[in-house]
Automatic annotation (TrEMBL):
It is found in: Membrane. The keyword Cytoplasm does not apply. It comes from the Bacteria. It is a multi-pass membrane protein. The chain crosses the membrane at residues 29-47, 59-77, 83-106, 127-149, 161-181, 193-215, 221-240, 252-276. Its main location: membrane. This is Permease.
Amino acid sequence: MFLLLSPALLFRAMSQVHVEQLNLKPVAAYFLAAGLIFAGTLLVRGFNRTAAVLGMANTYSNLVMIGIPLVGLAYGPEGMVTLLTLVSLHALVMLTTATVAVELAVAREDAQSGGPQHHMALLVWQAVRNAVVHPVPIPILAGLLFAQTGWTIPAVVDTPLMLLGQAFGPLALVMVGVTLAQNRIGPHLHGAMGLALVKNLLHPLLVVAIGWLLGLGGLPLTVMVVAASLPMGANVFLFAQRYQVKQELITASVAVSTLLALITVSAVMGFVAWLYG
């Protein structure tokens, strides 16, 4: 599903967007808020691999599986353009930042214990490559490049793309439900709730504050605030698994964050509708 439906949706959505229509200021507000939370997590918990993984849990949103169908339904094509601008950069910025932080922490731990040294430039390059060579940013960038040609997608191609894209939202939400049903929460409920509250509430509130400082508002900032309120993405668990850090806690946190989002996302959407409506 992920390798077929999401590229069709993402390419088609961006194939009619011109570069001059993109607004990067709201995206900057999102990343500034995420950066503050990530840095704050390192400051509070110390500069180590555990803090870096928890910092990612506090900031990495489920933009594709939940964000795309939600924003498409609530805010239409214009909102989708704003969201996909963020999606095209999200994994690259967040995964690279978190990878560099973890690897620096690992290198520091190894240096203290007399272990092997890591080549940071190679690690950064691998993080950037893995974030770009991925089924999410590639169709977004390809669609954006196609739009700059001024061409239109022939109907014989556009219709199947549209049907595939329309199937993505419902199936993505079903997959989220299946994932939640398989997760055990109980032993880590307290810690998971703390991480989920930071992700689901503190992140969007910081985006609101930074957007206000930057003089932003309207639909673009609304979409960024809602994106920040989305629950943790699955990449957080994969990241924790890769570095073997707090895997059970992160699994529980993804589940709690997703369940909590049923309330918090609705509350945030109502708040921004009142604030910017």
